[in-house]
Amino acid sequence: MSTTFSDAVLEYVAKIPAGEVRTYAEVAAACASPLASRAVGSIMAKNFNPQVPCHRVIRSDGTVGDYNRGGSAAKRKILEREGVML
User: Please, which of 11, 13, 22, 56 could form a disulfide with 26 given CB 3.0 to 4.6 Å?
Assistant: First the structure.
């Protein structure tokens, strides 16, 4: 059975524990496509599955980036509640 890149990304992000973050580039590399960080961002932007904590994926420069459920301020607030200090 073959897995698409999108499936691999969603599966990987679903396993990021609360209180931890990964960058878009780290997710791309972990899914065997190290140059696909922008694609990871697109996949996260389209994700509305609450089982996939897309708020735990941030930019390589340490900023939170955008969030499809309330923008970057909402994303920062969720991460702070989980104990992530950016």
Answer: 22
Residue-by-residue DSSP string for 66-78: --TTTHHHHHHHH
Choice among 10, 21, 31, 54 that is catalytic:
54
- Number of helices and strands in the chain (H, E): 4, 2
Based on the residue annotation, tell me whether 31 is a catalytic residue of this protein: no
Model confidence pTM above 0.85:
yes
Per-residue pLDDT tens over the stretch 63-85: 999 998 899 999 999 999 999 98
Instruction: Find residue 58's DSSP bridge partners.
Output: 23
Of 51, 17, 18, 13, nearest to 30 by C-alpha is 13
Where helices occur in the chain by DSSP H, the ranges are 5-14, 24-30, 37-45, 71-81
